Amino acid sequence: MSKLDKIGFIILNPFFQLVNPIFYYNCLKFKNMAYEYRIKDQHAVYFITSTVHQWVDVFSRQDYADIIINSLNYCQKEKGLIIYAWVIMSNHIHLIVQSHENHLSDIIRDFKKFTASQIIKAIENNPKESRKKWLLWLLKKEDKIWFWEEGYHGEEIDKDDFFQTKLKYIHMNPVRAGIVEKEEEYLNSSCADYYGIRKGKIEVTFPF
To answer: Average pLDDT by consecutive 10-residue portion of the chain (208 residues)?
Structure first.
């Protein structure tokens, strides 16, 4: 049962509203937000965010970030994913994406499932990973993997000014985090493609 299913069960059970009304209200609020930020138009342009469980800094190691990059490249070639912008931070990713072929929500679901299993496997098999026990304790319970937080906070982009706002937000992430001084210096993003400085690690489709 997913987190959203469990919350749905709580909301439908009046017992929780009587015993702990604050908890009940927070569950109701979470469910409403989850539905609000779901992908409704499967072929529209969306800004999405996927966050590592517990905000763990997994992608501080490039080996794990490369799994994300390779998987996104695969989704482009084999599933028709269109990527307008991207950034991989230490514990989350932002994308502006679209799909004219397959359902976008299906692509994201499969992407998250595949990358979760591959990154956990990479952590397990990495002899240089000093955080191995801690990472696996946080991200894997028995045989169940919990790498990504649930959902992806999808926001439909239907206007150019909103696109530009999200594009700037994505590219300025490393600057706000204090990783680089200039956004184009960060390698795990599409910024350099837009500035015409170098070709990035993921093929970017320009919206103009």
So the answer is: 43 48 46 54 93 96 98 97 98 97 94 98 96 96 91 91 97 97 97 96 91
- Do residues 195 and 184 lie in contact, with contact meaning Cβ atoms separated by under 8 Å? yes
Contact 77, 132 (CB under 8 A): no
Reply yes or no on domain 45-195 having CATH 3.20.20.100.
Answer: no
Rounded CA-CA distance 65/172 in Å is 18
Domain boundaries, the chain: 3-36, 45-195
* Residue whose C-alpha is closest to residue 47's, from 197, 125, 162, 204: 162
Residues belonging to the chain? 208
pLDDT in the model for residue 21: 52
